[in-house]
């Protein structure tokens, strides 16, 4: 992950000697970058086999863009109804999610349900640099 942070800082053109403290926008970018990396470090790897065990109304996990979400407590609140999510409980729901028009708020709301991500050998929507092969989803 240190390599990823170094690459990110280089991309943002922030030298290894530190940030020009008079430039607040660079400082904000660095903090946002660190927060994203911390999020990536904080979530465990969860296999598709493990996700498959969580396929009930009382224990519902889904995968969207290679990330695992525990949506158990969101089922009753889902505007499209709980059956829409339950159709994909314990499985990858990326195609269904992408095919439905979700607001930016809905996409951002997903972050609160994030519990993990698939191991690299099971990822099909993210590259090795954790770049998503689609747009409009949370980082």
UniProtKB/TrEMBL annotation:
One of its GO terms (molecular function) is metal ion binding. It holds the Pfam family Cyt-b5. Residues 43-119 form the Cytochrome b5 heme-binding domain. Keywords: Heme, Iron, Membrane, Metal-binding, Transmembrane. Signal peptide: none annotated. InterPro entries: Cyt_B5-like_heme/steroid-bd, Cyt_B5-like_heme/steroid_sf, Cyt_B5_heme-BS, Cytochrome_b5. It is found in: Membrane. SMART domains: Cyt-b5 (SM01117). PROSITE patterns: CYTOCHROME_B5_1 (PS00191), CYTOCHROME_B5_2 (PS50255). The keyword Transmembrane applies. Belongs to the cytochrome b5 family. This is Cytochrome b5 heme-binding domain-containing protein. It comes from Drosophila mojavensis (Fruit fly). The gene is Dmoj\GI22344.
């Amino acid at each position: 992950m240190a390599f990823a942070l170094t690459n990110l800082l280089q991309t943002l053109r922030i030298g290894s000697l530190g940030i020009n403290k008079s430039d607040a926008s660079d400082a904000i970018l660095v903090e946002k970058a660190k927060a994203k990396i911390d999020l990536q470090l904080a979530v465990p790897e969860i296999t598709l086999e493990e996700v498959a065990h969580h396929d009930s109304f009382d224990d519902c996990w889904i995968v969207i863009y290679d990330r695992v979400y525990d949506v158990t407590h969101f089922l009753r609140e889902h505007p499209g109804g709980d059956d829409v999510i339950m159709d994909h409980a314990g499985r990858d729901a990326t195609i269904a999610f992408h095919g439905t028009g979700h607001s930016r708020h809905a996409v951002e709301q997903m972050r609160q349900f994030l519990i993990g991500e698939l191991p690299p050998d099971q990822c099909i929507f993210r590259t090795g640099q954790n770049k998503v092969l689609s747009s409009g989803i949370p980082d």
